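OP here, attaching both records as promised.
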Amino acid sequence: MSGHGDTNESTHLLRSARSRSDAGARVRKPSMVPSDKDRSVTHARGHHQYTLAERVAMNQYQSLDYAVVDNELLREYQSKETGWQHITKTFGKWVVCLGIGLFTGMVAWGIKKAVDNIQDLKFELAQNYINQGSPYIAFLIYYGMNIGFAAAACACVLIIGPAAGGSGIPEVKSSLNGVRIRYSLNVRTLLTKSFSLVLAYSSGLVLGPEGPMIHIGSMIGNALGQLKSRSMKWYPAVMWRYHNDRDRRDFISVGAAAGIAAAFGAPIGGVLFSIEEASSFWSRQLTWRTFFCCMIATFTVNAMMSGPVIQIFDTGLLTFGFSRNYLYRYPELLPFSLLGVIGGLTGALFVFFSVRLFKWRADKLHNHRIYRFIEILLIATITSALCFGLPALFSCRSVNSVTPGLP
């Protein structure tokens, strides 16, 4: 009886201790792990509790196999591989990187050329009516072309290729970190991305080709590195050795770097971006292949932009003023530093509001196509009104009065 009583007493004490521990945990939990309502939007990811709907959505994605394979069958196959086969496989990677650089540069030039022609036509039509004393008709032409291009770009993304929306950088980073997102890197998305980028860039919206060029370069790397078609059941034997997740990942990394190099004319910058921002897996051999591809992409853009007489510049699709003709002076370093501080503060403020705006858009607009279409039309209207109306508030000045010495 005494043993049975001791057992009941110990069980009672254990339950009491557990209840006190649970109560203490319940008391301390709000201070250690705050709820999503009390937590900042930018820091809620680390402690976010996934709902059932979010888990179901996450199950639609697959993971990629980046692990190093090491087994007896592979070792036996590698022992039978001749030196010539190893050389051709390595040389083939350089050839693929050459193709990635060439095609990325040509696509970047095509986008730049198309946008320049559309912009010249748009401003020429508007300027003709301004010279005729009809500014309202000029605005209607300017606004009509902008709203038409914005609506066409939005329709392409919503109807033809939804995976082409946005900059594409999150999709590229997800793939390079082992998450497979369907349709994010296929040829259909590549064509939709390129065409919609031309339309959106020509619509006067405040955007540029930098982020989309990273996505486009990655899709070109994925297409040339795999070089197969499931719908057409076309699998060339010469590329079968690269049909694995690891080589596919490397070619996507090379393509992302080539996109940066083509956009900014900065091959080293493209390599550093791929190493520091995009990729999580890297190797020394990949560094040299990536740099080679970025050089090819930069040279291709410069060669095609210079025309029949090839001239080498240090710019890509974007230029930043007259840095060669106007050097800075030492007293100007202090204002430069002040501009850096102001830029950092405004950048932090921009990120603060952008994160909350993106979260609101994801909750309210993501699943409603008509709302997203209306959003684009509204933004294009505001942008067109500001870009056309603000210059009318100020008088024109001669260029020589601002920058004397220019021809």
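Record two, same layout:
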Amino acid sequence: MMQRFKMIYSYRGTSYLGWQRDNVQKKTIQSTMESAIQNFSGHPSIIFGSSRTDSGVHALGAVAHVDIRKLDKSGKEVSPIEFKRAVNAYLSGEDIIIQDAEEVPSYFHARFTSKSKTYKYRLICGNQKSLFCHDTHWMLNRELDFNSMQEATKLFVGKKDFSNFRGPLEEKEVDPFKNIQQFDLIETELPFELANRPQDFRSFEFITKGEGFLKHQVRAMVGSLVRIGEGGLSFNELSDLFQHKKRGHEYRFAPPQGLYLWNVEYPPKEEWYDLWKKSSEQRVAFRKAKSKEEDDLD
């Protein structure tokens, strides 16, 4: 008999080649966690994550689920506390830690029953170079127009077609319409490594919350705002990216090391099954519509 565990975990993504396991023997968050869980349970398992972050991206509140046998190697029933303790022990030496674990029903899905995800992006700019924070922030050696960037954040809020804000390898069957509930830009205190140099640096934090995001979408949005802050892109030019399908070269992707998966929210437990079922039906319907659209083009 199997049981499903929901895990809330954190990781520092610097040493990993992204979240998702691939066919090549690369060190990823998924493969590292699956190895630790197998060492504990004695059998291979697949973990399913709430988000598949890129190489170098970090997380403070990521969520995943995994199915393991209800009884451990000794025949004892596995509790969430024991699961968390043992898997963290096997993750010793890795930049991954499980913060919490709980048993959940089989229709809970870390990705498809989520309500929203919050990402934060950290950027430091200034007129000097620094030896610190390069793997946890985007270090930009120039000044930015904070007010212009802040004004442009409102363009991202709402349900819109984000086709022009996704990675080149995004799966075709993924719906480009995403509902962004929040996008804020705030100035923050400098990290302690730079706290004694306020005359040289400024620290910014981009905060965005949505029901879901396309691959590289957050980094594309941040990159476009930085272009505005540099004076290389106007408010109207950014707005036009939502009106035209073909993407130009108006922005760049922000580098991965400043991005953090901050939090994943879920509805009350009694809504999980209906949400999982609805999500499954929507994915099937979108794939069918996409297939018909491609057939019509033949």
